[in-house]
Every structure is written in structure tokens, then in C-alpha cells.
Amino acid sequence: MAKKMTSLDELYVDLLKDLYSAENQLIKALPKMAKTAGSSDLRNAFEEHLKQTQNHAERIERIFSDRGNGSPKGKKCVGMEGLIEEGKEIMQENMEEQVMDAGLIAAAQKVEHYEIASYGTARAWAQQMGYDSDADLLQKSLDEESAANEKLTQIAEGHVNVQAR
């Protein structure tokens, strides 16, 4: 049985470990999504977000290093595991290219919304506890996740969804 958490700080560290796991799972999934994407815009968005995702994991490592909290490893994010599994199911379906792209965008936006919620919570907790440098790093990741989500919406509404009709 796990040790009882008794503080927001402990919960915060646990969330950061969860986010670190989520980012690393996504680092493995994004190249597969990019390879499956038919639209060059979508493929480029996945490739760009892969670079950002690598930076997000590095930011979490930096937070752990700066605070002397040990390693962010050791936890598996089951939420991200489920979202990635849903994306894999879509990629295994027999679909027209444009329909596949619409499905990939839907799967990716689920991931983005999960990350937006997680980073927003982590940032709020960091602010609450006076961890200003952590909050700044988490805000950068949150901003990038929000921008990635918006880019996916633009690609979907700009041409993918129309072509999938």
C-alpha cells in the first residue's frame, strides 16, 4: 500500500510524475501519428508537437532537479495510456485518408485537453505553494499545449473535416 499523502506538496510531486509519464508516452506515440497522417499540415503539427513534448519532459526534469525531489520517473500515467490506446484503435481502422486525419485530430485533441487540465492544475498548485519558477515553467508548457490544441482545431476546420465529409 502506498504511503498516505499528507500535503499539497506531495500531491503536486505525484502529479508532476504523472505528467512526466504522460509526456514520455506521447513522445513514443506522436511519430506513429505523424506517419499515419495524410495531410502534410497535420503531419507537420504532430512533428512540431513532438519537439515541444520533449521540452515539456525536460522542464519537468528541471523542476525535480532544481527542487531536489529526486527523479520524476516511477509512475505510469494510466490516463494517457488510455488516450493513446484510443488513438491506436483509430489508426488500426480501415478508413479513407481524410477520415483518418479527422480521427487522428480528435484523438490528439483529447490528449491536449488532458494535458491542459493537468498542467493548469500543476501550475495552480505551484503558485499556491510559492514555487514561482516551477509555475513559470509549467505555464510555458500549458501555453504550448493550448497552442497545439488551437492548431489542431484550425487544421480540422480549415480543411480536414471538410474533406472527410
Q: Proportion of β residues?
A: under 5%
- Strand tally: 0
Give the helix tally: 5
Overall 3D geometry? elongated
Q: Oligomeric form of this entry?
A: single chain
Distance between the termini: 51 Å
The CATH topology name reads Ferritin
Helical amount among residues, as a percent range?
Answer: over 70%
The domain count comes to: 1
Largest sheet, in brief, is: none
CATH C-level: Mainly Alpha
Any idea what the CATH superfamily is called? Ferritin, core subunit, four-helix bundle
Please mark out the parts with pLDDT under 50 across 5 or more consecutive residues, or reply none: none
Order of helices and strands: HHHHH
What is the CA-based Rg, rounded? 17 Å
Report mean pLDDT, rounded to a whole number.
96
Task: Name the structural class.
Answer: mainly alpha
Quick structural gist:
The chain is mainly alpha-helical and 165 residues long. It has 5 helices and no strands.
Describe the structure.
The protein has one domain (8-164): Ferritin, core subunit, four-helix bundle (Ferritin), CATH 1.20.1260.10. 83% of the residues lie in helices and 0% in strands. The protein is built from 5 helices and no strands. α1 (8-36) runs antiparallel to α2 (40-67), α3 (78-92) runs antiparallel to α4 and α4 packs antiparallel against α5. The longest helix has 33 residues, at 132-164. The termini are far apart.
